[in-house]
Amino acid sequence: MTSQPFTILAAAHELPCRVVTNDELAAQMDTSDEWIRQRTGIHTRHIAAPDQTTSTLSTSVAQKLLHQSGVAPDQISYVLVATMSPDYATPATAAQVQGNIGATNAVAFDLSAACSGFVYGLHVMAKLLAGAAPGYGIVLGGETLSRLVDWQDRSTAVLFGDGAGGVLVTNNPAAGNGQYLGDDLHTLGDQGEYLTARQLGGSDPDPYLRMNGRKVYSFATRHVPRSLTAGVTQAGLSLTAVDYFLLHQANARIIQQVAKELDQPLAKFPQNIATVGNTAAASEPILLSTEIADRRIQRGQTLALCGFGGGLTVGTVILRY
Questions:
Q1: DSSP letters along 188-234, please?
Q2: CA 27 from centre of chain
């Protein structure tokens, strides 16, 4: 894909109020604050209240995006929600959001690519808006992973949290100088067994999220540097030209290893995993929203967003903000 107008007009996120500490988890399973921090970098995570769902969290984000941008709901052409924890098999979470915000002219659908979902969603939105008349699209990542976790399994329960984040984008050159510069996406379906959730078929259905941590770590530390390098090259840039690398917040050690492999300063890899944990498809948009709100990300900067996880999948998108 060649460079095209793609301006992020607004970014927002929503986190549940309830914060669960490592010490709370240690009180109900064989783990400790020190064990979790050393292996993951996670201190706390947000857990949805009983009346909060992936659709309500995502709707809140969409409403914030409309408010920030000043775009009317009926001006939205597309609503995409990346999630692995939807409220229903159908209707799609995106359809629920579309109805909730009154985006009556928008086509709405979900995208299932686990922790790569938001990046895949940006890629799809860029394709939808490419060459079209000026329009607007909303790309969201939303998760309530707490409802997929076996809270007696310390290998997964300590990792995941709930939340939603997203962006409102336009292909209108008059709206800003944002650009979609390049990408790199891959799926390794033959390794999908290493991260599964809510197995419904077969002789032994399993409602919980299961992960082979060592296999996923090995996959991430090999394929994420490759994808980032390929995406930057496809954009006609160098790694040094990237101002910030916004990686899926799966594990602090993975982020550190990727920075090392790319020979880039860790300061270019912002992190919020300590307070948010792994929020799958919501991870990168929550981080992006936070960095923009804190004014660390500025207009004109070049960003590399990379998601990786279930599928197994990996995806990189290069943007000029």
A1: -GGGGGGEEEEE-SSSS-EEEEEE-HHHHHHHHHHHHHHHHHHHHHH
A2: 30
CA distances from 186 to 114, 132, 215, 309 (A): 13, 26, 17, 11
Contacts of 245 (CB under 8 A, 6+ apart): 228, 258, 259, 262, 264, 268, 269, 303, 304, 306
DSSP state of 73: G
Torsion of CA 236, 238, 243, 246, to 10 degrees: 80
The residues annotated as belonging to the active site are: 115, 248, 278
49: tokens are 């209240």
3-state secondary structure at position 113: coil
Kindly state the tokens that stand for 204.
Answer: 């032994």
pTM over the 0.90 mark: yes
- Tens digit of pLDDT for each residue in 86-103? 999 999 999 999 999 999
